[in-house]
Amino acid sequence: MKESIKNAFECVGQVYEEVSLLLQDFDTSLTDDGFECLHKTTIATQDLSRNIDSPRRWLARFAGRYYGLIEQEVKNPLLFVNVMFADANQQAMEPVLVLGWVRAFEQEKTFGSS
Asked: Of 9, 38, 88, 104, which is most buried, counting CB atoms within 10 Å of its CB?
């Protein structure tokens, strides 16, 4: 294997290790604030492929963690921490940290009078 290819894979491994440590720091901090990670020791990813025809999708586009309040059965709001490695077209980019929350609202059902 050429040295440059070996170095490229080594760099990807180092980035993944640093992102893992960053996400674990968020786990600790958010747990202290009353949140729990909803998927324990795994990371959230999307669009990973094992298909021979989709080699760009063999690597994770992002790594993420999702959190809900420990005391609530229905996790609302839902917090997330993602580190993006590629855009929607699987083009590599400088890693970007994305933090946010989603809050679900129950929609009141109304019916016409009869």
From this structure: 38
